Amino acid sequence: MLVTELIANDHRLVQTLFFELEASPSAGREAFERLVVELDVHAQAEEAVFYPAVRQASRRIDDAEAGHEHMRQMIDAVRAVDPGSREFLLALRELKQVVLNHAMEEEAGIFMDAQRLGLAQLAELGTAMEAEKRRLMAAPIPERRVA
Amino acid sequence: MAMNPFEERGTPIDRQMRSWKRVALPPYRKQDVDAFTRCRVILMNGIENEAAVFSHAFARASDDPDLKAQLAALRRVEHQQQNTINWLNPADQSVLETTIGFEQVAIELTAYLARTEPDEYVKQAFDFGLLEDFDHLYRYSQMLDLIHGKDPNEILQGRTDVLPARPTQDHHNAPFLRLLNHYEKTRAHPRSKVNVLTLLAGEQQTMNFYKTVGNMYGSPEARQLYAEISIVEEEHVTQYESLMDPTETWLEKWVLHEYTECANYYTCLETEVDPRIKQIWELFLSYELEHLRIAGEALKRLQGTDPQELMGREALPTPATFEINREYVTNVIKEQSDLRLVMGGKWARLSELPDDWPSFSYQQAVHADGAASETVVRLRADAAGVELVRAEDPTLELGAGAHRIASLDANPADNTAPETYEETEPFVRDVPPGDHGDIRLVNPIEDPAGTGVAAKTPRPARAGKAKARGKRGGS
Question: How far apart are CA B388 and CA B163, in angstroms?
Fold first, then answer.
């Protein structure tokens, strides 16, 4: 799978998780933490595999990394409020917007730049990022940056 | 004049929709409007049009329903703003009169922005476009005289000269040559960003206007002139948008748009001489301050970027400043009429152009039946004995023909107007006026080779022609 396809699939997955969580907020903290694992593993794998490779072809990587930092701060902000409260829903909605905005910038900008690497390298990166995601999923929690 | 739009409070967004009566306000009187008030009206219509174009593009890229809802709400308001502004142009102002107004905007706006532009490369791009719009004014002025018998100074009020600059027939470039080098978003001065976006908005609306109204005259020469110049405006939009850093994020672009709108309305408010229209600028500035606050908040929340950091803390720029730039423009005409675009977003003198300059073949295609911008000069010279020129400095009027010829590239159109009327051969129409058996109506299916032979064969007798028309109509 091309790395761009893998990333786009991840984006769609977290988008669905957000919608589900918003629809049944009673799922609360536990469902939120499942979402956080997806976001965190995705972001870390991107930072380890995709961003370093595509940096030579794109001037948007600094912005993308800053976007991840902003997302991590927002995750902390959601965690800080009581899952049953109205504040939780509002903070969750804001986090969703942050993630959707980041995904849009990545797909409309970085993906276009990444085409310069050629299909063969994008496929190699896809394999590498998949492996990195598997490793992170299996890794002990401290290795994850926000979990 | 100093204002920090991030510290001002505007009208709350839920109080920005107006009744139809308040949207469609009475127009100005063309007989006594100040020329620069008309310029402000024309520019701000373009600014609002760009706001709509951008907002739609942003909404189409976004998958965020909340953000799309915000953009949709702002678009409603800005749609009404654009209606109000554009419809200040009165119904009795002819298409060509309004066109002269559009070119006055293009000239005086570009000149002011070039004069105040901190980036040398961007300034050069502005100077280059300036000379093209300046020449368009001269070409359209011939047509205004021919069709309406009016002097362009009824619109320009003597503030802008009417002279040839870089000849319009040479404004047609191979498309990729118009791609210039963009500024770097982290290093560019915020004023450069505002200047580029303002000019882009103005040129884009000029393109849209010509593209839309070029059919409003029956004269084939007028239609072809609008066709020729409207596509140069397309080149200008391509040129100016290529100056923008493509890595600006959508949210950054949104803030830049709202900030630019604030800067332009603020300039209009500060410089307006018509008290009624001044109230409109004031109202819309208060709307835009709120739009900027909303966009800035989105940038901060969704991207973690402070909008004021993005736009800098210097005083708000004043892009919509309309004043007389005659000296500056005259100087650019003198020094840069012979510049042309070459590869890599650079410029070269006519003497440096290679024989295989890509725009030569492009110009041969579009001027295959002559350049409409030359036809109009010939027609005016035929009608009045001289081409129409208006300059404060009479020596510039006397030297107009010589400048026009000296500024041509090595590939002039076959119908290029001679330097003076003494040399003019009467303009020969392909067919008598009112007879439409010319090339415009040759169906390409009947002449698949595109040789134009069908148009050049002797015209059939009346009866046969009626039959041929009937056949086309029935197919």
Answer: 8
CB contact under 8 A, B61 and A93: no
- Owner of token pair 């409603």: B76
Are the C-beta atoms of B426 and B379 separated by less than 8 Å? Answer: no
**Any A CB within 8 A of B64 CB:** yes
B315's CB contacts (< 8 A; 6+ apart) are: B1, B2, B3, B4
CA distance B109 to B199: 7
CA pair distance A36, A147, nearest whole angstrom: 7
Flag whether residue B73 sits within 8 Å of chain A, measured between CB atoms. Answer: no
CA R_g for chain A: 15
How far are the Cα atoms of B156, B162, B174, B214 from residue B150, in angstroms, in the given order?
12, 14, 35, 19
pLDDT digits (tens, 9 = 90+) for B64-103: 999 999 999 999 999 999 999 999 999 999 999 999 999 9
Of A15, A66, A97, the CB nearest to B302: A97
* Residue with tokens 């609306």, as numbered in its chain: B205
Q: What is the pTM of this model?
A: 0.89
147 residues of chain A, pLDDT tens digit each: 999 999 999 999 999 999 999 888 777 788 899 999 999 999 999 999 999 999 999 999 999 999 999 999 999 999 999 888 899 999 999 999 999 999 999 999 999 999 999 999 999 999 999 999 999 999 876 566 664
Q: B342 pairs with which residues across the strands? A: B346
ipTM of this complex: 0.89
Q: Which two structure tokens, joined as six digits, stand for B246?
A: 């493509």
Neighbours of A80 (CB within 10 A): 10
